């Protein structure tokens, strides 16, 4: 079976398990293959990661992302992490009854989760993290939990309360619901999960106090409740979770003191309580948490001294007590914390000299800014240990009250990347050695009392990205050596006493983004080359003595305040025009260059246009000719002109069709009439009259008239309006003859034709019931098609088209006005194959002929590179199908909106509201288990990519599968 058809059948089977007719197929299919193919059909796989999933295989065990149990050959694991899949989980996965692990992490899957998923009898690991799943999990979602051990729904969009039924998952050991929008209180049931080892509920919207009973989690190793809105105190029961290694309650609204029972957590290594409202002293007992490696108490209201017992934390690597109200000096005992790597004491009220121990321990980061540390840096730096010289990367002593010079000992810190000594009272010159600190990225010495020059050696600091020296007393020039600081992106030298010109060197620093040289004594003109700096965001030179013209480029649009207060600077932003006369711009006249550009591109375009024009004008001319002819009467042998038609003019005699034994002969050679079926009445003479009164309709290829043969039998006659494009008589007759041989109960029979050079008529059987369009959209009263009628119409159309395609005839012009309904309700597809009469299957002609059929036209008509195949009919059929089911036109024009039917149905399906699309006249009177698969089929038929559409034979098969036997019997 071809891949697509079985795929679609499977989708539909998966969709209507209630329909008893369908599962007769399934015994031959492996349940796992079926489930996986249905799953695959429901999702998008843009990177083709599931390409190896072929439903023709007997076993899925070699497919990508799949592991089977070697004994049972059933799928035991599905690992599709990071496959870039999107769409929704359909019901396919529910077939995988032996599945133990389902891991779909890091995709773009959306929609809600079926409770049946957690009921899979063998599922142990469910990892759906990092997707776009959403919805509320009902309170009893986990009621039948099965053997689940790991549930990871992190990083999705789930909302509502965490279902209390989680307590039924007694085997659960890892629960991760982090980074969703779960709200409300923590369900107390969680505390009953005795096997729980890891609980991550961080970054949700959980509120209220932590419920009682937490000490039930005797096996808990990790708990993360950070980033919620939890209130109250930390329950002392926490001490009962005696195996805890990691506790993160940061970023909540917890308050009060820390409970001493924390001391029972003898394995605790990671304790993060930052960003809450805890008060009081940092407790002395904290020194008892011997295994602590990471302690974060930042952003609370802790006050008083940091207890000396902290010195007992020999394993401590990271200590963060920033943003509290700690006072006094740091305990010397911390010199024993030999594992320390990072200390963060920023934003406290700490006093005293810089502690010596901070340069004895091999710290990587020392963050002491915004305190009240005083004295000079000399002492503590001079006694720094070699280990510290190697390790220190970040030193932030800013915003304290340090005095004295910047000590020369800093040069020894060879790994230093970030040095911020700003906002102190440092004096003396800027040391020359900063150029030696090859790792230095950021040097901020601003807002001190430094004097002297910017040392030329700064040019050696090739890694320097930010040089910030503002608000000091620095004098002299900006050294040209700065051009070697090739990484520089931020240069702030404002509020100093720099003089001399802005060096050309700056224009060589290609990464410069922010430059502030304001409030100095800089003079001279600005180098024009500064205009070449591509990444500039701001360049402030206000309050200097610069003169001359602004460099242009970036400076043409610079904020005027950035160049203000330079009395002799001119250019647009300064609101002062420069005195020099600008050369007149050369203005080219685009019109005069026409000849000069007479290369290949222009004429080619023109040529194409002409071509298009000639084709469309041909069509226009063709149409005009028809209008001129106006009302035509044809008289066929022995005609008896009816009085009412006597105003009609041209009487045409018809000649004998030599090829056809039954064809009538005529007295003149002016035209040729051929009747395939050899109807005696026709040959004995009848009269057909084509006038407006008998017009049945007009289509892309011509108008259709009803007329009556002499024996009283009505026929429909189509007058082709494309006559000027029609092939030679020979070709025309050959094609028409082919079309005439096509007989099918669901196709309108072509009974004959009439040919002259200027006029061609096609003679069809007459169908009395009117068009589908009329039935759907012009019915008016209560006489609408029932569901069964509609299903019959859909099936009939499909059968008719399928027959056409088997004969290699493409219809090209499907629309509801071309589908006729006969007196017994059977649909007949008309107007097929007419494009064959044109000299070539020109897309332009086709699409312009068919544009009246707006909304039915397959997208490939607009795309020259895609071959047009019979799949364009499948598209049109899909639209027709949706039209029949919804009762809506393919394109509806609302007041200020255009609604495209298939987009609307597709959208409704995605939102799970597809039933609302079904014709409201049918509401309550259709079987959903038929209607929904039918609509899905319609959507598949209207796939943008032709190869994704099924072929019509498949469609017929699928439709027969969809129809529930019960419906068929009763209907
Ligand atoms: C999800 O889709 C977005 C665009 O829709 C894409 O940028 C992103 O890479 C996708 N993520 C994954 C994990 O495939
Ligand atoms: C929870 O899942 C998220 C996303 O996959 C992950 O970043 C986080 O580390 C997990 N939590 C735990 C405790 O493993
Ligand atoms: C070029 O021709 C256009 C149209 O003829 C005219 O509007 C326009 O002013 C001409 N431009 C110049 C520069 O002469």
From TrEMBL:
Signal peptide: 1-21
Domain of life: Eukaryota
Sequence ranges assigned to domain Protein kinase in this UniProt record: 690-962
Principal location class: membrane
PROSITE patterns: PROTEIN_KINASE_ATP, PROTEIN_KINASE_DOM
Database matches in InterPro entries: Kinase-like_dom_sf, Leu-rich_rpt, Leu-rich_rpt_typical-subtyp, LRR_dom_sf, LRR_N_plant-typ, Plant_LRR-RLKs, Prot_kinase_dom, Protein_kinase_ATP_BS
Residues annotated for ATP binding in this entry: 719
Record keywords, A-Z: ATP-binding, Cell membrane, Glycoprotein, Leucine-rich repeat, Membrane, Nucleotide-binding, Receptor, Repeat, Signal, Transmembrane, Transmembrane helix
TM ranges: 618-639
GO cellular component term, pick one: plasma membrane
Example GO molecular function: ATP binding
Location in the cell: Cell membrane
Record's bilayer topology term: Single-pass type I membrane protein
PANTHER family: LRR RECEPTOR-LIKE SERINE/THREONINE-PROTEIN KINASE-RELATED, LRR RECEPTOR-LIKE SERINE_THREONINE-PROTEIN KINASE IRK-RELATED
Similarity remark: Belongs to the RLP family.
Protein's name in the database: Protein kinase domain-containing protein
Organism (species): Chenopodium quinoa (Quinoa)
Gene name, Swiss-Prot/TrEMBL: LOC110704454
